[in-house]
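// run 5 | inverse folding | seed 20
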């Protein structure tokens, strides 16, 4: 057993969620230790940020670092439909002027390192590489962790609160069988990187472009990065991408060759690096917290890459959890009720983004909607920038439903249930060396 009994919080995982919660807690005077199993920098996907990350970056004192970085500035998002028609850009600052409406396209190996270094600068005790073997409990209450020691053996370390920010390995969600699979969003992705590919000039250089496949089975992301590369990937239903087809390279090229917009954009460059594949099954935990423990980031849930909300949800869950934990420590209350007080608000925000994702997959046209309801373009832009946690954006849903065809049914909601039938097949793709692990 560790002789250090003064820790307030142990954080498992040093990605954006773990870095955020630990930094904010340290700012509030908590003694925080963070365990990260990998040595940074390390590869990770999830490279496009959205503007609402600004407010968390401000609290983290990360804005000066982001502004001084080489990351490509992102001012907008554009959509290309199945016929190849490009939408007008959704410029974030047209709705909310100022620096808060500019964000970045990041290389995650660099960004995650910056975030973890920032946590260190704020007084977080970062142990890296260090693998947490299990969370320790006394009854139903988390009381610490067992950590693998360098050179062999293990030690137990106690703390008042344990935060699981372990990503999709999600230790506590698996332990308590809390995972709820989304009834709709069972997607997969194949991606790679292209050097010297086309990018727009000026303000549009850093735009994320979402390109619908001509057969409407899926969509492409197109994300320019500062090392003269573009992150390019196709997302579609898992069965469509991976069942009865060839390897990742073959499927990627078949989809590319069927999409004139992608061919055009990649024609000026050449591929750099290998092909990557991952499950994008969407899931969420039925709880955000228990007595002495909290789930944040991908350890709580994963939505969908469509609107680049992943890093925002990691940062926001880390921020909300940090405030609940700090207040609980001050009051001597680390109960599930106190530590999870932010869950309802957070889930409501995720539900809004999820609905926008589902509407797109069900045929929603941004162009048609804005043409029919031009006064609501700002509200749609609010959703796209990640302004998810305020009721004002709910004004869009009634008009959106007015455009439904007569036979359209409601978007299914979350439900308890078993994983999709092919979840074991998906997990075969999800090997330990997978960078998305």
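// decoded
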């Amino acid at each position: 057993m560790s002789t250090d009994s003064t820790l307030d919080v142990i954080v498992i995982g040093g990605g954006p969620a773990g870095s955020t919660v630990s930094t904010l807690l340290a700012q509030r005077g908590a003694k925080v230790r963070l365990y990260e199993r990998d040595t940074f920098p390390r590869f990770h996907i999830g490279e496009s940020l959205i503007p609402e990350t600004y407010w968390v970056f401000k609290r983290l004192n990360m804005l000066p670092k982001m502004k001084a970085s080489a990351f490509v500035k992102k001012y907008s998002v554009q959509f290309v439909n199945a016929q190849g028609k490009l939408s007008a850009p959704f410029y974030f600052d047209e709705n909310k002027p100022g620096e808060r409406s500019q964000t970045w396209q990041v290389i995650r190996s660099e960004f995650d390192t910056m975030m973890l270094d920032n946590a260190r600068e704020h007084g977080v005790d970062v142990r890296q590489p260090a693998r947490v073997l299990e969370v320790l409990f006394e009854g139903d209450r988390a009381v610490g962790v067992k950590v693998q020691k360098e050179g062999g053996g293990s030690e137990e370390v106690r703390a008042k609160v344990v935060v699981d920010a372990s990503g999709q390995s999600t230790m506590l969600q698996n332990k308590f069988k809390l995972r709820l699979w989304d009834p709709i969003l069972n997607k997969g992705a194949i991606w790679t990187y292209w050097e010297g590919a086309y990018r727009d000039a000026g303000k549009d250089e850093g735009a994320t472009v979402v390109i619908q496949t001509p057969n409407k089975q899926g969509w492409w992301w197109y994300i320019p990065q500062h090392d003269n590369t573009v992150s390019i990937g196709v997302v579609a239903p898992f069965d469509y991408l991976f069942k009865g087809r060839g390897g990742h390279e073959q499927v990627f090229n078949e989809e590319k060759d069927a999409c004139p917009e992608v061919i055009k954009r990649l024609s000026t460059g050449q591929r750099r690096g290998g092909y990557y594949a991952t499950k994008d099954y969407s899931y969420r935990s039925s709880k955000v917290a228990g007595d002495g423990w909290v789930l944040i980031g991908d350890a709580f849930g994963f939505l969908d890459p469509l609107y680049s909300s992943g890093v925002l949800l990691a940062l926001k869950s880390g921020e909300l959890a940090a405030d609940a934990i700090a207040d609980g420590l001050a009051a001597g209350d680390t109960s599930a009720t106190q530590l999870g007080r932010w869950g309802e608000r957070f889930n409501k925000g995720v539900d809004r983004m999820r609905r926008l994702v589902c509407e797109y997959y069900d045929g929603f046209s941004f162009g048609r909607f804005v043409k029919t309801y031009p006064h609501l373009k700002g509200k749609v832009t609010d959703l796209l920038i990640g302004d998810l946690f305020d009721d004002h954006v709910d004004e869009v849903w009634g008009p959106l439903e007015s455009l439904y065809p007569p036979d359209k049914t409601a978007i299914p909601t979350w439900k308890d249930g078993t994983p999709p039938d092919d979840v074991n097949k998906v997990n075969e793709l999800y090997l330990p060396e997978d960078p998305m692990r």
